[in-house]
């Protein structure tokens, strides 16, 4: 009996509250009412306080919409969303869907105001009789308000406040509903409601739900489909057909019968709908949200990482990440599906996910920096033989592995710096198979550097005194070490930096050490392909360009930065580099077997010490690509003995291991594109702008060094004496030779005579009567042709 008295008291108090609110709203006569169930025990004093604080207007919150990342051709790469939602107009929603939701949720929706007095009182009587909540009295407008408040919530605490079963929240919801009906028409509220509603299994809004369960647009929903979706709003999880088909059907059938009861549909329509299967499970679309479900997950994550750095998308990284998932953005990227498919085909043909070694390829467009493709051999994931590391990008980006040492691909930057300083591409250096550079000084941007006990050697057969082209063809280590000493490490470092090369682990400049030209620090395929693209674009380097445009739901562009290009070397210098690297892919070069098609190609192999990583970087004027095969399991080990394409490797090199990956990818990427040619280097780049060296034979070495410096050259004295006809202790000859000349500012090495008249100095003896090289020596053109003593870069020999 006491329980009944308490319930009766609650009813009275609730009615009092109902009357107070109705009077306050001035809408009692119009049929406005409020949900009374659950308000028992709410005191008159509390009612008075709450009524004074009721909100006077409803500020609609923007819908959280999914953002779409698209490839260059418009195809979808990924969908980013907290809620998979695509808003539509009411005219784009099937009328039967509108009728179904009204029939089951608020059949008097178009007759009452913000609140349904009859429905609320009916629910009140049932709930009080049963002693618990059996029916809800909320109108569609009230439900819309509640959904909106939840949508607006950004934290768990805000969500809890928006859903709390308290009288205060219900009263505020009531006043919001009154305000909303003053601001919007019934149809507008119904449209907003259907776009906000949760339809289970990750589908938010009627359009996403129609697509998710039935693969149709909301405008094409039929009766059975509409009834199922309408029934889900009450409990999206409980009535989700992918969770419980029978429960979903039972609920759908309740909706159909209610529609029949209200004479919204005919008996025949109802019977046909009741016999229809709830869903075809094979047609249900998986909610493939986020980069993990993208066909290009690594590329996608790199896109998202870059977008999180864009201040136009929010003040903080957290704000930007939230905006990306809720802002309804359309993000267009540089990815070219055709080029990406060609790169992926190469990975599929030459590697297997189970390999102990990894492979990665990035392809960039010269002149724009557009990153056309990014692939790797280990698929995305956390299972065995999968990885979350992106082997193509720097460590500063989420998931970035941070690179591998680039080996002899670094020689291209030495070539560029040498040409920039005036060294011709036919510049010869005596390059024995092994040289002793222990303690030898190399100039840097901060002074000098040296390495103790450093005796590097060549890994390939080479010409005794190769030109720059010949040295590049054979990747002659000793030539490039001596060339880098003459050029200086600072010009190489500065030019490398201008081409985007830095330590991919730390972002710091590349280390200036004597072995720099043979590979230094860790770099990525993305950096390498973009740098080589700078050569292909005749000296114009472009930062890698991933995100080409971002637009909001209204189509308004959001700043993305766009292309960022700069001329970092003259076209003439780049032409020289292109000619040198082009010859690498011609007969006699290490990349000869990788040549294909009719377009001019250029490239460079790279093999690190102990074969921990091998590279091939190359390009045409249209595309540049860098490929690496490496051990990505620290501490990195020798590739020999590891597996690639399911087979054990007995050798590892840039040309034979990484090269085929590059060739297959580039051949597919360039298929069907116009033939392109490099611009031939001018005469000065080929022959050089040499300056005559002063005659110093027979002089005191220190005096000779001063004389060379006064003439505009750098000078150093070789500590080991050589056989010569000159008096012991005097200058025997210089390298480069006086007869050859040298670019101004270049390093000239002075060789001191031991007084022996033996001629074992490999033709380097030079005297006043033989300064043009008409005696024996290695002065002929490559291959033994041409005139003895004819130096190809000397302008005084135009027929060379």
Automatic annotation (TrEMBL):
Protein name: PASTA domain-containing protein
InterPro entries from the UniProt entry: Beta-lactam/transpept-like (IPR012338), Glyco_trans_51 (IPR001264), Glycosyltr_51/Transpeptidase (IPR050396), Lysozyme-like_dom_sf (IPR023346), PASTA_dom (IPR005543), PBP_transglycosylase (IPR036950), PCN-bd_Tpept (IPR001460)
Source taxon at top rank: Bacteria
Pfam families: PASTA, Transgly, Transpeptidase
Organism: Kribbella albertanoniae
Catalytic activity, reaction form: [GlcNAc-(1->4)-Mur2Ac(oyl-L-Ala-gamma-D-Glu-L-Lys-D-Ala-D-Ala)](n)-di-trans,octa-cis-undecaprenyl diphosphate + beta-D-GlcNAc-(1->4)-Mur2Ac(oyl-L-Ala-gamma-D-Glu-L-Lys-D-Ala-D-Ala)-di-trans,octa-cis-undecaprenyl diphosphate = [GlcNAc-(1->4)-Mur2Ac(oyl-L-Ala-gamma-D-Glu-L-Lys-D-Ala-D-Ala)](n+1)-di-trans,octa-cis-undecaprenyl diphosphate + di-trans,octa-cis-undecaprenyl diphosphate + H(+); Preferential cleavage: (Ac)2-L-Lys-D-Ala-|-D-Ala. Also transpeptidation of peptidyl-alanyl moieties that are N-acyl substituents of D-alanine
CDD domains for the chain: PASTA_pknB
GO molecular function: penicillin binding; peptidoglycan glycosyltransferase activity; serine-type D-Ala-D-Ala carboxypeptidase activity
